[in-house]
Here is the input.
Amino acid sequence: MAKINQYHQDEKLKITFGKKEWKLLFRYVSKYGWELFFTILVIALGVLASTVSPYIMKVVFDDAIPNENYRLLFLCGGGLLAAVLVSIFVSRFRLKHLIRVGQSVIYDIRRDLFSHLQKLPLVYFDTRPQGKVLIRVTNYVNSVADMFSNILANIVLDVVSLVAVVCFMFAIDVKLTLVAMCGIPVLYAVMALLRKYQRRIRRTFNDKNSNLTAYLMESINGVKITQAFGHRRKSERTFLHLSTEVYRYWMKTVGIEFLIPMATPLISELAVCLTYFVAISAVTDSPVTVGVTIAIVNYLRRLWNPINNLANLYNQVITNMSYLERILETLSETEDIKDAPNAYPLPAVQGQVDFQNVSFFYDTEKGYVLKNLDLHVKPGEKIALVGQTGVGKTTIVNLLSRYYEIAEGSIKIDGHDIRDVTLHSLRGQIGYMLQESFLFSGTVMENIRYGRLDATDEEVIQAAKSVSAHDFIMKLKDGYQTVISEKGGSLSQGQRQLIALARTMLLDPKILILDEATASIDTETERQIIEGINRLTEGRTAFMIAHRLSTIVGADRILVLGDYNVAEEGSHEELMAKKGQYYNFYTKQTEK
Amino acid sequence: MKRNIFSLLKGNYIKYTIIQIFVAVAAFLGLLNPVFTRTIVDDIITDGKKQLLLPVLGCMLLATVLRLGIRYICQMNLEKITQKIVLNLRRQTFRKLMELDFSYFDRHGAGEMMTQMTTDIDITRQFLAHCIYVSLENITLFFGSLLILIFYIDAKLSSMLFFVMPVVVILTVSLAKEQKEKYRRLRQVHADLNTVVGENIWAQRVVKAFVREEYENNRMAKVNEAFRQGQIDISNTSRKYLPFIQNIHGIIQLYLVVVGGIFVMKGIITLGELVMFNSMIWMITGPLSGAGFLINEAISGFASYEKLMDLMEAKPKIIDKNRSRKLETIKGKVEFKNVSLRYQNSQALRDVSFVAEQGTSVGIIGQTGSGKSSLIHLLGRFYDPDSGAVFLDDHYIKDIDLEVIRNAVATSQQEVFLFSDTVSANIAYGCPKATAEEIRQAAKYAMADEFIQKLPEGYDTVIGERGVTLSGGQKQRLALARAILKQPSVLVLDDTTSALDSETEKEIQKKLREICQDKTLFIISQKISSVKDCDQILVLQDGAVIQKGTHEELLAEEGGYYQSVYKHQYGGVING
Here is the structure.
């Protein structure tokens, strides 16, 4: 079993942002490439159009006004009007398309991230707090939306307008332009210096934030226990500690990030002063008109504006990259258990199950859980798995559904090795009733229908009746349409188990696994359920893990599990006659 | 009425105001540069006073350095204040979480609460830190520039700006009105997103067992699409107003060129003044065009604050009365008098009465949903009954401090919740001060010591959330150890041993009897074998006690529920 991550431990980043990651990102964006391209093109044209206006102003100040040329003045006014209209059109265009592209990209990323999670092995979920997975799918993905709508476009635009401005400036006066641009290398040096710290500290902050989320989620899920055990104060302290950590690292992060919007105006102002100085010294030597100076200063602001913006965008890019890293890391998490390349769908199952020489361990260090297990089950046979807690009863049925990969040997259903068939066809034909009953928010009807999505209301009710759940469901406020709160919170444990059972029954599987499925159901109901199961399992293979004799005695064959392997097997009578483990187990339970 | 969002600043009002004043000062310093520009153009270039150049440039730089320095300090301090508020909000909401009643959690999902405690807090802070700061900066810039323009240059030329302002205000207010509902909806979708993903992660085993990956993907697609649509809706509304607000600059510049040009030609103002005017319209239009974005941010902030307040203002119904008698400990006598309880969806208990003396044991048996666990919940006062009363040690339960009750009653549940921590920390959850020896002793009583020793790092082994790496029976024994370690006066085993094999269960019961001499013990079970030795057994049906007595008495009741269960559990075996 992989190392378990806890809420107070930072997760180690497993990927580096390399070529592969950029390629993946590019794929997401390129799907909307044309829309993005056209939008940016339109906006770029808009930027170019607005770049004309300082030039128009120059004409106004240098020609129109000094020469009292009214016609030229109004002509310039017309030009400005056109620029405004273009600009309004471009703004609208931009709002429409960029938001759509950005939201669509994160829609795709979230979809893929979520569906990738569905493919990951249970180990992935078992070894980390739920909150740490949750925050990636919701908050992180939301955060990077801006990256694909505004940030990306802004970078392109700022670069375009930068180039345009530089061209105009060179056209007006080469020397002054060169002077005006001398701040750029300085800025670059400053940014490079800050960048190193910024990225590292952002990552640490994200980790702390993720820890906090994990603890919060665990606290919400376990709040009843916390209250019942009077653990309140300690939980509050832990939470406060984690929040303070987040606070501390956030202040460190902004301490650096706020420097960037400070550095750029400072450098740009220096450049402006220098330009004035040079320009005015030049005024005496060779005639530089007022218009040229003003135009240069105007362009100077326009030159530094995109540079300022780029610096700020850079901040946002760094932030988003740190989220993207985590998202892409999850996306690149390997699915340990997946269909073989030439996997075929398992044909309709008859119910024969063969474990041949199966060995298994969760963790090499912890050693074998099962060793050389041989088990052959005929179609329609009902097998009871008995044994002390922790000997691996659940492991055996987990292996059958291929939640874990066996180390040696093979498991076959109707002669098909389970590793050769598709997971979908394998698990879809095995009904697995779990120890814990997980329900979803939604109606009772929807929860049962989870077992078979195309089932009619009639069939759902039939399934509920077969496990004796119908009566209590009808007593609920809205019967089958009663809305169950998140995780089935408003129902009792036994009621949840009944609904979960009905869900499995609806699937109508050829192979049925009941893992202590009736543990919290009263014996009377259990008897009815077993009758229902017996009716259903007629001619079907069933594996039952239970501690109640009433469940066990009805089995065709009882397997008593010892260390690593089957210790005893046989019918109830055979095992009783043997006076071995089962006999002891059985007599202890019935003695009065 | 919802509390004012600014009340969050309580205790920081003065500091917050001072910072905002400095923000205004910094913004005002920014206004000086155009004045310098005018000096450069009018005096230095046109009139050739070159000796002024260096001092003016020096002043320009000084103003910039000052402005940026003040800004940085303001931003950092503002960040500090608002982050402290966040810290405080987190603490308060978390405390709320710890205080609220079970019935609140029955109604409110984890996804909703998650959203309130993460995203909503962040967005609220964003409002206080960023939105207010930028607004103030913008307002200063706007009015400052306006004043300079009017008094320094020309009132007639500037007067046009007064016509622009109301237009912007109208546009902004309409935008705000339209966005409000949309932001609320988006906020809801965000919570739904948390619910879908949260449930999916939590129930991965079911998803895999039923091969419902596709179904889950569709469920996700729905909220994912709703989220995208919500964002697009918001941008559509923005599209109606924002472009006009944003391009106010161009319109004013147009006015400036035509009207200002004529003014200069007519000799009303100088060329330098027009140039200065030209360089100042950025400062007037900048703040105006930012208004659209700010209002979006503000509306989003209000929507989140509203939701946050829903949680902050939720009142736990079960609270200590001030006149609580100072009862230090509870010895363990329990009495129910005509207790009835109703949940949202169904009746849980009807007119339940019984007395359990200290040191005795009570077995509770009954069908699924018959109210067994509800009865236990009342014992720890996690719910209050709708009618009737519960007494502990002959004190009315509402007169006892909650903390005293919860310290005295320990429940070991059937569905075990474990925390992602070490085994020993999980056992010591109820009493963090327990020594390693005490923890081990409790584990021994719960028959958990043996398997814990076999774990890779023994008691220091970290188990995952919900202890998914342990078997059902192992988890139940940890929960039992956790309850035992608390050394409660009333110990409740809520179907705790359902996943245990009968041998282990027997042993545990024997050990429990040893340590429960003076404790009151409640055992809820489906198995007769678990309850038959209890001093009294209650049989529940549909929330009512239908049979009450010792094992022998109940067995003697012909045709009773107890007898039929007994026959089912033993009869077939004994006779067959």
The two ends of chain A are 42 Å apart (CA to CA). Residues 70-119 of chain A form the longest helix (50 residues). Chain A has a mean pLDDT of 83.
